[in-house]
C-alpha cells in the first residue's frame, strides 16, 4: 500500500509541481492586485482630502478678499470725495439762495423760514430741485465733509471759504454740481471694480503660495523626529498666512496704495472728461427719460472703456493699479514698508509677484471680467437706484447685469432730481460696510472663475498641477466675453481663444482658462 502510494506520487509529481506553481502564482497575483487596489483607494482618498482642503482654502481666500476690499475702500472714497466736493457747490447754491431771499423778503422772515422752503414770490426755477437735492443727499454729505458745508440738513448756515475765489453764477454752480455728482459716482464704481479685481489677484496669488507651502511642509519628512517642535504652523499664525516669506508678501500687498491714492484720482480725471463731453450739454432743469439716461451712461462708458471690442481689449488698466518700476520705491516708502535710508531693490520673489500681477491685469480675461462687474454695478445704479428713487419705477430683476432698456421707462424726471440720487449713491458705493455694489459684483460668476484660475495657475512651476475644477468652480461658469452694457456687438467677433487668452501663450493662467472653455464647449455640443 505504501509502495503503491509512493509510486503514484512519483508518477504525478510533475502535475503536483505545476499545480503548486499555479496556486503560488495565483496567490502572488491576487496579493499584488489587492495591494494595487488598496493603493488606488488610498490615493483617491488622499486626492479627495487634498481637493477638499484646496477648495476650503480657496473659499476662505475669497471671503478674505471681500473683507479686505471693505477695509481699504474708504481710503479711496475719502480721496475721491475730497477731489470732487459736491457739498461745497451745494453750499454755494444755498448761500446764493439765501442772499436772493434776503433781497426779496425781510431778514426777520428769513429767520423764521427754512432755506429749503422758498416762498412762492421767489422766481427760482430750480427751487424744488435744490430742495430735493438737499433732502436726498445733504445729510450723507455732511457726515463725511470737512465742515465747509452746512452744519445740518437745510440749515442754510454756510461756513465761509477761507480762500477768496471768484463768485460763480447759479448756472455755473448747477453745471458744476451736475458734472461732479455724476463723475463722483462713476469714479467710485470704477475704483471699486478695479480694487475688487486687484485684491482677488493679490490674495489668490499669495493664497496659492500658502497652499503650496503647506503641501511641501506636509510632504517633507522631519529632520529631527525626536525633537519637539513648538512652532505654530496653523492658519491662525499670521506670519505663515501667506507662505514663508512674510516680509515679501507684506510689501506686495502694500502696492494697493497706488490705486487708493493715485490710480483712483487718475481714473477720476478720465471719468470727469468723459462726463463733461456727454452730460455737459444737458440742462439740469431738463426732463429726460430713464432710457435716455441709460444711453448717456453707455456713452460715458464707451469713452472710458472703449467703443468697440478691440478698443476694450487694448484698454490699459495697469497704470491705474500698479506703479511703474521707477515709482515702486516711492510706493513702498509712502505705504510705510521702507524708509529713504532702507530702500533696496525688489527681491526676486517680490519681482515675480509684481510681474505676474502685471501679466494678469494686461490679459483679455481681466478686461472681460472687469466689463461684467462694471455692467452689474451700473445696472444696480441706473436700473435700480435711479429708476426707483428718481423715476419712481420699481427695480428690475437682478438677473441681468447690464444697463438696459426698461419697460415703462417713458416716465421723465429732471436731471437735477437724479443728481441727488447720484450724490447719495456715491457714498453707498464707497461704503466700507454693507456695500450692495460690491455684493452685486461678487454675484458675477466669472469673477469667481477668474479667481479660481489665478489661484490654480502656475502650479506646474512649484508643485503638481491643480485645475480650477479642484476648487469647486464649475467650468460652465466661464462665459465668453460679452459686449453687453458697453458697446454694440462687433460683427466680426473672434473665437473663444482670441477672447480669453493671454498675450504670453506659455502662461499657466491661459492654459487653465482655455481648458475651462474647452470643457464648456464640449458639454454644449
TrEMBL record:
Residues 142-169, 470-507 are annotated as: Disordered. It holds the Pfam family Peroxin-3. Keywords: Membrane, Transmembrane, Transmembrane helix. It comes from the Eukaryota. GO terms for biological process: protein import into peroxisome membrane. The chain crosses the membrane at residues 16-34. The keyword GTP-binding does not apply. GO terms for molecular function: protein-macromolecule adaptor activity. One of its GO terms (cellular component) is peroxisomal membrane. This is Peroxin-3. It comes from Glonium stellatum.
